[in-house]
Amino acid sequence: MPSLLTLDEVRTLFHEFGHALDALMNENSYHSTFIPWDFVELPSQILEHWATEPEVLKLYAKHYETGEVIPDELIGKIGISRFFNQGFDNTELLAASLLDMAYHTLEAPVNIEVQEFEKNYLKEIGLIPEIEPRYRTTYFLHIIGGYDAGYYCYTWAAVLDNDAFEAFREHGIFDKATADSYRKNILAKNGIMDASAQYLNFRGRDPELEPLLRNRGLN
Ligand SMILES: [Zn+2]
Question: Which of 5, 134, 162, 187 could, after both became Cys, cross-link 9 (CB 3.0–4.6 A)?
Fold first, then answer.
């Protein structure tokens, strides 16, 4: 029976399996501990990188009737398509993140008309009219009871997963030593250690922005 998953669904499969690996490899013996939001998404988002690596695609992306392995030409197109619309997508996310911060850095109670506040703020940061923030204030539920002043964590999680995957690029995406270090320092210690210290132990330095910009074609 063919599964015929779309590329998006395959990425979701890898993403959720990353959460599963995190749970399986964790050494935490308590039922529930706090893990920062951005770090919760590191194990899942990093696994998405493997989904579209040519070496990995050739292991699973086969024609459902003939068994033919995905052709290089198609792999090339998948590689290029990841840059599509990235300027718009990232600006939408960052505009929403900044809007979140604008509300949460008001220093005294104010009586404002939110649509007016939003309009003025977006003008102030120079958002062009062709781009809207990912969420408008009136339905931006993340910022009122959940991610308050933390909507940026999605983007910060992406900085982490792109920089962490870079370690595998440097040593090979199937390098055992890098994978062992990732398991030992990141997956095993989530919720037990300070997340920044975990990252430092794995990467030997703080996360850098460049891999994210490069992978999204924004550098
Ligand atoms: Zn997730």
Answer: 5
- In the Cβ-directed half-sphere of 178, how many Cα atoms lie within 13 Å? 13
- Torsion, CA 87, CA 152, CA 78, CA 64, rounded to 10: -150
- Residue of 16, 68, 124, 208 with catalytic role: 16
Give the integer Cα–Cα distance in Å for 27 and 17: 18
Q: Give the pLDDT confidence of 72-103 residue by residue, as tens digits.
A: 999 999 999 999 999 999 999 999 999 999 99
Residue type, 73: E
Instruction: Kindly give the distance from the C-alpha atom of residue 17 to the centroid of ligand 1, in angstroms, as a whole number.
Output: 9
Distance of CA 75 from the midpoint of ligand 1 (Å): 25
Does the active-site annotation cover 16? yes
Phi (first) and psi of residue 116, to 5 degrees: -70, -45
Q: 37: which residues sit within 8 A by CB, 6+ positions away?
A: 147, 150, 153, 157
pLDDT digits (tens, 9 = 90+) for 51-65: 999 999 999 999 999
Domain parsing of the chain, residue ranges: 7-81
CA of 119 to the centre of ligand 1 (A): 31
Orientation of helix 195-203 relative to helix 153-171, angle to 10°: 20
| Residue 9 structure tokens | 């669904």
How far apart, in whole angstroms, are the C-alpha atoms of residue 85 and residue 102?
26
Amino acid (one-letter) located at 54: P
Predicted local distance difference test score (pLDDT) of residue 1? 55
